[in-house]
Amino acid sequence: MIDLLDQFPADAPLHVLDLGCGVGRNSIPIAKKMPRATVVCVDLLESAIDQLKNYCKRFHVERQMELIQSDISDYGIEENAFDYVIAVSSLEHVASKLSMIDVLQALMLGTKAGGFNCFIINSNVEEVMLTTGEKIEPCMEVNLSTEALLVILRHVYGGWEELAVQPKALEYEVTREGEKVLLRTTALTYVVRKRWTSC
Asked: Which class is domain 3-124+143-168+188-193?
């Protein structure tokens, strides 16, 4: 997320979108590294936005941040608005596969020529009760195989420069309704750059 910013001049007045920003794990370091950037932070949860406000003040980046409480599917993106778009563990929480495609298409159109889109999306998600070994329905609105997810991404971003395709198998413990659950996933990092068009 941060390394890609080295592709821009340090004083570039970037317009950045963090879709599903949470409490600012990525947006605050971006703002700190790029002091002339404006970072638009979108998250559904009021609690996340409230905590992000506090962190912005703590790290002295509040003037750079625009905080928006919204479902990421409902957030309107203007054409050619952003230099850099990130979405970490958020696109799989839209309502459906079609909603995901709609959001991706909006992000594609909303990125300036030469700009980047950087995603980390969970795929192949499985959840298993630790006490019984029973598989349960994953708490994930869109749960695609890694292969199916790549088909969608490459279809939407056809013609863009593909910079990274990195699937990584992960597993960790979560809690579902007070019960411990083992979550297994393939987290897919997908990074693309919008090509400059010739005149």
From this structure: alpha beta
